[in-house]
């Protein structure tokens, strides 16, 4: 019997979820900025075995974008408060999960079978996993089935060397997913595989070009089928001793830009090219949904690689403002800040 919609003693239905099969299977999808998490989610969600998956996304940047970039039933997607999920954990995840559950309970949301959490690319998965395992509210309603980490074949070697977040994400994953192998030289991929084996020898390494991966290889059976038998494995011991590095995002800066009126695409492209050429090494992420002549355009970039802009047929939501997020070191954000006002009148930093 599905007890998941029965109200509990406290009035919150999720407090009553103490049988194992009634708890919602959860997978955590970590991976550094721009490593292909959303691409993987979008591809997975097209798989019939993933039907009924709710998605919770967390972004580092003040203008919400990912909800519009996840090609999913918007009612099945919740955005967790801006910032780094692992640093602002208290409340954010509870809030997000409670919003999903209460919408389901009120009939405003179709039933869902599992939850995929996509934290921001700067998040440490350990405290998030700990919260699911230990927070009384979350632990009663959810069970952590998998920690997956996307690894950017093109940039991971540098990210592993420069960003401790990447090392942590790789080290804690049950399964690693190498992305962008279509862009990286075979020798680079071979060396990266050796580095990954050194950091996390137990994790299988799958490959996903444009997010194409077999859901059954990526997730344990109990994530896809909540009634499947639990494997006889030891609890995740690494989580017990782990402490979050609460100040870790201080070395990164972000700019969140908004424009109410349509942007001049040529001026935008020329501005972005200048930023990319001058600051590629420190430009960790560019992500935007822009209102330009002809309709909305998605812009994506990581370091010097800016993907071909994607024109959308329709706006994914009623918000038709241009939104752009840059994540980099402070000097790069300052340099960008000095140039955009002149190059792109109308594109304003969100205060
Ligand atoms: N060529 C190629 N591009 C990819 C692949 N996977 C992702 N991308 C591109 O890489 C860029 C970043 O991908 P996302 O899926 O948005 O990355 P993300 O990890 O969700 O990014 P954040 O949420 O900002 O951390 C996009 O332009 C994708 O189209 C791949 O396997 N091959």
Automatic annotation (TrEMBL):
| Molecular function per GO | hydrolase activity; nucleotide binding
Source organism superkingdom: Bacteria
Q: What UniProt keywords are attached to this protein's entry?
A: Chaperone, Hydrolase, Nucleotide-binding
Which transformation does this protein catalyse, written as a reaction?
GTP + H2O = GDP + phosphate + H(+)
GO cellular component term, pick one: cytoplasm
Start and end residues of each CobW C-terminal domain: 252-344
Which SUPFAM superfamilies does this UniProt record tie to the protein?
Hypothetical protein YjiA, C-terminal domain, P-loop containing nucleoside triphosphate hydrolases
Q: What does this protein do?
A: Zinc chaperone that directly transfers zinc cofactor to target proteins, thereby activating them. Zinc is transferred from the CXCC motif in the GTPase domain to the zinc binding site in target proteins in a process requiring GTP hydrolysis.
Family to which this protein belongs: Belongs to the SIMIBI class G3E GTPase family. ZNG1 subfamily.
Spell out the protein name for this chain. CobW C-terminal domain-containing protein
**Native source organism of the sequence:** Rhodopila globiformis (Rhodopseudomonas globiformis)
User: Lineage of the native species?
Assistant: Bacteria, Pseudomonadati, Pseudomonadota, Alphaproteobacteria, Acetobacterales
């Amino acid at each position: 019997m599905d007890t998941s919609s029965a109200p509990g003693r406290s009035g919150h239905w999720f407090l009553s979820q103490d049988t194992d099969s009634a708890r919602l299977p959860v997978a955590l999808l970590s991976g550094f900025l721009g490593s292909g998490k959303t691409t993987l989610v979008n591809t997975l969600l097209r798989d019939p075995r993933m039907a009924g998956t709710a998605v919770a996304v967390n972004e580092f940047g003040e203008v919400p974008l990912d909800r519009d970039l996840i090609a999913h039933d918007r009612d099945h997607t919740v955005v967790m408060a801006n910032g780094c999920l692992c640093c602002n954990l208290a409340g954010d995840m509870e809030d997000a999960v409670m919003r999903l559950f209460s919408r389901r309970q009120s009939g405003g949301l179709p039933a869902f079978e599992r939850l995929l959490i996509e934290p921001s690319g700067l998040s440490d998965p350990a405290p998030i996993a700990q919260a699911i395992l230990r927070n009384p509210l979350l632990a009663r309603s959810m069970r952590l089935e998998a920690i997956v980490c996307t690894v950017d074949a093109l940039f991971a070697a540098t990210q592993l060397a420069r960003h401790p977040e990447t090392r942590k994400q790789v080290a804690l994953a049950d399964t690693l997913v190498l992305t962008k192998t279509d862009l990286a030289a075979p020798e680079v991929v071979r060396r990266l595989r050796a580095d990954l084996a050194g950091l996390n020898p137990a994790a299988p390494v799958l490959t996903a070009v444009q997010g194409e991966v077999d859901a059954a290889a990526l997730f344990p059976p109990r994530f896809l089928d909540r009634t499947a038998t639990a494997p006889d494995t030891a609890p995740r011991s690494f989580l017990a001793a782990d402490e979050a590095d609460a100040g870790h995002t201080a070395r990164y800066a972000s700019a969140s830009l908004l424009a109410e009126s349509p942007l001049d695409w040529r001026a935008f492209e020329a501005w972005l090219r200048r930023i990319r050429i001058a600051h590629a090494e420190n430009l960790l992420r560019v992500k935007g949904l822009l209102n330009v002549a002809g309709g909305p355009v998605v812009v994506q970039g990581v370091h010097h690689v800016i993907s071909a802009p994607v024109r959308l047929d329709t706006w994914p939501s009623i918000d038709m403002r241009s939104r752009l997020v840059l994540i980099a070191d402070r000097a790069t954000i300052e340099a960008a800040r000095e140039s955009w006002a002149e190059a792109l009148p109308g594109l304003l930093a969100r205060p």
